[in-house]
## 1
Amino acid sequence: MSTVLASKGYIAGTEAPFIKEMSEITHHMWMQGWDELNGGNISYLLEEDEVAKYINVLEPLRTINLTFPVKELAGKYFIVTGSGKFFRNVIKDPEANLGVLRVSADGDSVEVLWGLRDGAVPTSELASHFMSHIERLKVDPSHRIVLHTHATNVIAMTFTHDLDELKFTKTLWEMCTECIVVFPDGVSVIPWIVPGSSEIGRETAKKMRDHRIVVWPHHGIFGTGSTMDATFGLIETVEKAATVYNLVAGKEIKQKITDQQLADLANAFKVTPKAGILNV
Ligand code: 2HA
Ligand code: ZN
């Protein structure tokens, strides 16, 4: 903790609950084997009040220009993973691997308020994250988290399964009874696009208007939600269904969950399944 912060009565940055949450979830995800090397990235929208309790918001450390303006997010605070940083290392050294940012008033840059030590920069997928935050906030005011990970079985499934998102969703629903209850809105799938680009950001965000999950073929998954538990749980459930799909692939299917049973589940749990998928 710097003496400036100490003299103002701030608690050390790493004590902040949102830094602990980021450290714990990145560690947990690395343990799943989903975030090899520098794979995966997270951004978490924070309230000014919760940041200001732990971090000096009055004196930004530096400013980083954005190549994609995000006026809609002006003045908003985020904690993000750093570009090229390993999920495995976050828990050991949050200040080097994470950063707390504020989007500038014109939406053309971000101010670094804490972390990203030694000149590090925010995740290479910041465009996809920020554009997805903008779209999710329009449809869900409680939205806060965008989480990208290289979920192994989801990636595998994108090699063998049709990439039509209605077909992809239906297969996932059929793999585990509770899937349709957890993601009645289905999963979306975009074409293969070079990662880190504004184009993949725009295509992902377009899908985020009516989905919380977007699959990137042969790459991974983007999940969104209002809490870390909800967002991680959603991705975990999709990955579980994809795992079952891969386990039964090539084997004789003797019985399965029928469309009527999926409709019965939706009815019993009072969820509305995405239209155009069930034939009942
Ligand atoms: O390197 O996962 O998509 C981080 C990534 C890029
Ligand atoms: Zn990735």
## 2
Amino acid sequence: MELSALQKSRYAYEPKLPANLSGDVSEIALKTGEATTSVADEADLRALFKKTFGRPVVSFIKGHNEKINRPLTVAVILSGGQAPGGHNVIAGLYDGLKKGNAASRLLGFLGGPSGLVDGKYVEMTGDFIADYRNTGGFDIIGSGRTKIETPEQFAAALETAKKLNLDAVVIIGGDDSNTNAALLAEYFLAQNSKVQVIGCPKTIDGDLKNEHIEASFGFDTACKTYSELIGNIERDANSAKKYWHFIKLMGRAASHIALECALQTQPNVCLVSEEVDEKKLSLSQVVDQICSSIIKRAENKENFGVVLIPEGLVEFIPEVKALIDELNDTIALHEKEFGGLSSFIDQIYWLSRNISGPSYELIQSLPPDIAKEFLMDRDPHGNVQVSRIETEKLLIGMVEKRLAKLEKENIYRGKFSALAHFFGYEGRCAFPSNFDADYCYSLGFGAFVLIASGLTGYISNVKNLALPASQWVAGGVPLTMMMNMEQRHGSKKPVIKKALVELEGAPFKAFDAARENWAAKTCYLFPGAIQYFGPPEVCDQPTKTLLLEHSGR
Ligand code: FBP
């Protein structure tokens, strides 16, 4: 099969490394900082992570590292949703290992964390990896969402690690997978096993970030891919002047993606779930917000526009959240009985007798196709699959109704015709931007240095990401430092704290200062496609979120 010219050129792209990872690998030493604590719940976490809690943050400096050239056998896992750049983490890890010692080996567990439990893996050679350098996707070894949580799973993971004589496992994943990495690191030490565990911060959602993790990888490419598409739609809307486009954007809970895309494209409306939550906005008030822009624009004879909707919105609207919570609990309690109902009408009738009045009224008021989505098969934890609820269509329906009423009251005189879109999977496997290609390669290379230096229970990190790659600083952060205790399925569990959009943060403030203007006028920006070859100001720019958060620009 003939490869595309871009694909061939991307194979040859050499990712940029931070200065503290460049040069002779034998000269990369560790600089150790102060002992750490956790973001909260120190006593609980100290008790749960007896062996790994409180270790210091580390960074890499020039100096002799006597451990770095020993031969190592390391295995890598891709965990959770795809994010552009995963292949480069593996390439960086592999190159680091080989630079350290040509006899070192890299294995890849197949299909996510279950590969470790079931002992399913592949040996990764230079030729094998060459076909995946600087490409999107996780198809090199596949991914999965298995959580390692039962004693049997932990024991099986240890058994596999022993059988393969592993020195370390690298888990490339989001907050849940890195929580799992912390638990595995602790478990291996408690079992007197030498196997180290290192995490890498992945998720397009952008919600694995904190003081030390400035961005999760994949966010940059995914947002740029969606922003290209949104810009194209804006231009189409402004050309035809006849449609309102309602675009739902991925990002399971946090609205970072929607907010970043809004900063890149300046749509008429962008809903931010965290704001809806903070202000306790009802569904009707969210509809008001959209209608207000439609009415203003109709007054200017602009009967078109673009609305961005974060994927998790419905869970942040109080009355919808109450409905979802009630459905989760009630259906779980009467699983068999509910499962035996053969039609939607029967299900609604059953709900009329089993859920509260306000929740019943709400589900009944929804268009039937949307109401059905609330009643679809639950996820493995028994919850409504929120990402499958077509919020964009729900809002279009509600806006149509509201405008019809306002028209009768002579408040609105315009034409409203709307189209629904969902951008999610389109962005998760794009060729990584130069930023993500460089960042991921650095994370993988840094993971090698952490392993070679004998650390466990750390996440590979790179700081100063708003600056050019040569000024980035790589290092490692103890996973326990990012954790707190949260209620999960009835009991308190240690978890890495998810970062939602901060309403006091610079990205939201920049959006807030401009949105009134965008709502009334046509201020669209067209970022165009990601560029891979060309001047750095075109090809290497990070996201606006990162720039606003870290350099105040
Ligand atoms: P991760 O948190 O595992 O990176 O996945 C994020 C995500 O892409 C969300 O944006 C989305 O809601 C979800 O995965 C979709 O999951 P799936 O791939 O299982 O349909």
